[in-house]
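Researcher: I'm preparing a figure for a lab meeting and need a structural model of a single chain. I don't have an experimental structure, so a prediction will have to do for now. The sequence is pasted below. Please return the structure as tokens so I can convert it later.
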Amino acid sequence: MVYAIILAGGTGSRFWPLSRSLEPKQFLSICSAKPMIEETICRIGNLIDKKNIFIATNEIHNKKIRKCIRKQGIPLNNIFLEPSGKNTLAPIAILSERINKIDPGAVILVLPSDHLVKKHAAFLRLLKQGIGIAEQGNIVTLGIPPDRPETGYGYIKAGKKFKDKNGKIYYGTEKYIEKPNISIAKKLLKDKRYYWNSGIFIFNPSVMLGEVKKFRLDAYKVIQGMGNGSGLRKMWKRLPSVSIDYAVMEKTKKMALLPADYGWMDMGSWEAIAQILKKDKSGNVITGNCVSLESKNTLVWSDNRLIAALGLDNIIIVNTKDAVLVCARDKAQEVKKLVEILKKRNLKEQI
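Model: Understood. Here is the structure written out token by token.
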């Protein structure tokens, strides 16, 4: 059977000040009337039975996620509450172990909870193709053809060409490059062998656990001795805080890349919002109580007070009830650095 692990534990710090630790972006209604986590669940509803959808999130979001999945019909037992943030290896490996005990022949889809998908039918077709490739013992990732020199995404270089059982093409992988600087990103854009890492993975749980054992034996041993409740909390402290990309994907020889063009956008920063929302003739995105004059390529977003922008170029302004962000658009990926400063200053109400 096919299962899903939806990752919903992040704080969305690059989306500050709208996204906060207690109200992260996956629970916000940004692209539609539904929160992004609900959009993600609905997107795969025709492919995966609701009882086979698992969600990993931080325990501070317990009430929010319970309210959300009640609407969607997902069993409450399918929530995995992380005692603290440990990046993506820990929740993926733990839930892979849980699913493997239920169904050793399963195929698991790992999906971030903060993506925009414009072409739903194409997305589901690619997932089905990826499931078939994963059934052959591969760990599949969906690679997005880049359309700009993006510094906020990882890049994967496609390797040897293969064909699946239906004659459709996919690739092995040769190289990972994590969030390059702008000069390197421009070079990668010209090389058609490079794809953005979507963060979507498809695999059999025993295959993934075998690779975790091979490359992160420390984490594997902890997970094998982990139980629920107090046992989980005790063992959780011993797990490394590392992404699945660094821990496994960059090292494994089982990786397969499936080129994927389905109107994808990682809603990870204000620049992503500037890319998708309707623009005026000068390229501005104006949302809320705002006016703009003689500005271009600028995003102005206000939840309450009036924001007046005059003569701006490639600027982002975001106003909420207790904070205002002003930054250059090419610095949008670095907003998380500001959040780190706020944490050091112990400004808890603002983060």
